[in-house]
Amino acid sequence: MRVESCLVQIGNRKDVATGAVSYPVYYAATYGHPALGQSTGFDYARLANPTRKVLEEAIAELEGGDGGFACASGMAAIQTVAALFSSGDHVVLSHDLYGGTYRLFEQVLARVGVTASYVDASSVDAVLQALRPNTKALFIETPTNPLLQVADIAALAKVARDHGLLLIVDNTLMSPYLQRPLELGADIVIHSATKYLGGHNDVLAGLIVTKGQELTERVAYLHNAISAVLGPQDAWLLMRGMKTLAVRLDRQQENASRIARFLADHPLVEAVYFPDLPDHPGRAVHFRQAKGPGALLSFRVVDPALVEPVLRHVRLITFAESLGGVESLITYPAVQTHAEIPEAMRRAVGVDEKLLRLSVGIENVDDLIADLAQALERAAEEVG
Ligand SMILES: *Cc1c(COP(=O)(O)O)cnc(C)c1O
Predict the structure, then answer these.
(1) Distance between CA 121 and CA 159 in Å, rounded?
(2) CB 1 within 8 A of CB 9
(3) Which of 104, 129, 219, 339 has the largest CB neighbor count within 10 A?
(4) Which residues carry this modification: N6-(pyridoxal phosphate)lysine (predicted)?
(5) Residue 136 appears among annotated catalytic residues
(6) Whether the predicted model's global pTM rises above the 0.90 cut
């Protein structure tokens, strides 16, 4: 089955007793044992819940992995995976990355002796130079959030293999519909399923997918031991959202491509970051490993004074954090999603006060363009 069919069929007739097309929400926290030493496969809900299990099997299949694990949020998924590391271990991460991931490594993991370096992962040389004798993993986003920098997953998988490291890919921006890092040699995929997979800005969730039996067992152990697991109602909501992932993303990408071109031609816009623009430096690598550009783009306005009035004047587009849902959202990374990253590091990467990030939804694209046009125009009038 192709990915679109797998998505739509999540949970369909998996409840064999009833043949339910939408898998039921099992709220039971504990399950009766048929006899001493026997189990139905469900004992206690932290370890396994039927609704969560259907979701976990679906994401494992979609990503081509051996194990799937549903967590309370994307950060809970990252924390669970980070528990693979011990005091004295070192991890190399993309320098342009989600602010919460940076905060977890710098404020939480650093205290227990796990150190981190941040590099431009679009350069294999930069990654190689950051390796130390105690490096245990590469943790990358591709494309990165918010600057859409592209890392070559297969090339970094080779670096990881040659040096005995784990390659962990945060695949939130692409979803398995567009990119499957495990097939390119990664060991672990992480999702903030709050974003494209859920798709409706109504559920907080995270997913982990692992490749290989030993690693799958280690992560299963940590998932239960740490237990930042996803509740059954949220697992159901997430599956319900995932059924339409392919059609949503098709429309979102189409809209995003049109908007990227509109912004690239706009006199008040200095730069647009989107993998499908002809001058995007990572374009060739991106389209070798992903089926589409995705629907997140960032742009830099010519004057930082334009930012506040643009955010005030958008009407259809909502000024809010997050991304990936059917509703278009505009974000100011420097003060919102990436505020945790120190100013010097943010600026060096390019996340400055002129940068806005747009998560493109499924509204009519002409309405979205008209909204951006009027907001930019009114902002320019105010700034003079
Ligand atoms: C949002 C996000 C996260 C964190 O996920 P939550 O579900 O908000 O905890 C991690 N990585 C990326 C790329 C994200 O966009």
Answers:
(1) 12
(2) yes
(3) 219
(4) 195
(5) no
(6) yes
